Known about the structure:
Elements: H1 2-8, E1 9-10, H2 14-18, E2 25-31, E3 34-39, H3 49-55, E4 60-63, E5 73-74, H4 76-84, E6 97-100, E7 122-126, H5 132-145, E8 151-155, H6 159-169, E9 177-180, H7 186-192, E10 200-207, H8 219-225, E11 239-244, H9 248-256, E12 263-267, H10 277-292, E13 302-306, E14 329-334, H11 342-351, E15 357-362, E16 387-389
Parallel strand pairs: 1-4, 3-5, 4-6, 6-7, 7-8, 8-9, 9-10, 10-11, 11-12, 12-13, 13-14, 14-15, 15-16
Antiparallel strand pairs: 2-3
Amino acid sequence: NALDQLWELQWTLGPLVKVMPPDLWTFTNSNGNNPVVTFTRPLTEVDFVRFDYYASKIRFLDFSGDGVPGAVEIHEDVLHALALYRPSRVFLPNIQEFEFGKRLLPRHLRYYPCLLNSSIETVTMDLEKANALEACALVSDMSKICPKIKYLRLSNVSFQPARSINDLVVHLSCLEWLGVHSFPTLASVQHLGTLRSLSTWNIEGYMSYIPCLSPRPSQEDFQKMGFTTENGRFASLTALGIKSTDWDYPHSIIKGMQCPFESLSFDMSSNGLSVPVDEKVAACTRLCESISLHACRTTLTHLDLDDSLYHPEHVDHIECLFKLTALETVRLSITNASVIDDAWLLQASASWPRLQTLSITCNMDDAYDTPRSCATHPWMPQPHGASCLC
């Protein structure tokens, strides 16, 4: 009904506090344009009669954006009082999704466990502002309280809580979508490979130094870690995304993981590292050849290759990707737009008959005096046709 829909998604707990007895709360100093509510006395069980009724209707709690202008925010003291209230209670019994981000305040982090519940299936958190120790504590509590998480995305993770996050991952048996801004531990990779539910995995922290592997890990090293489809591992994985400072890492990983991928995404930014062009091209060639010979060559519909680590004079080394005949979306980042000419586009149109979107991002190095333009051709379908962003 309309009341259920009104309460289903909340950007703040302020409205929930305001349904409690009026002698319990008052407004304090505003937070920018938003009023802030705080408690004026200790909590009692009677205070929760209307609170519980409306709290049961909340399914989604979203602290990720700027919130709603004029919405009532809660003071830190409110979270503190709820967290310490005895007898303990489940404050949000039907909550399914938590999203914390831009409005995640470090001093509030210690109190968030009181809002968690076993019904939660989706967690999205940006930990950029989080205190490492308190982030570790929150993640540790999640591993005990929220075993049914299906969608987990944690970004801007510092080195300190990374192990706690991987400890959380190994306690989740229902994961379908995982994106964590840190490289997985040996235990987490071993666990993820056994999940029949996992369909999407984004390794979002740039791989540079991997503690559990040698300084220059080989394909065999990654397979021993668990990046393999032997013995039925990763049985349902169809989408993989990897960020790395080294092209050889994803090359070694996907060679061992012969999944029927539908989506592959690689962000290969050098992240400030100086790598010779020839070395980049050779590594890029190995990766592209691995994809073209992979078990996914007839199933892959989405391919995203980033960053601008291609040869400044030609794209011959990525033409093996024309073997991927099922592609519908292709996103490429190249150094020089002029190397994509009509001949290349005609070959692409013949090789990728299902193509709906072609996005070519050009980031030309000042060292090469070439036009900042990109050829187009009438074969491109509309309105989702190829786009060239130079």
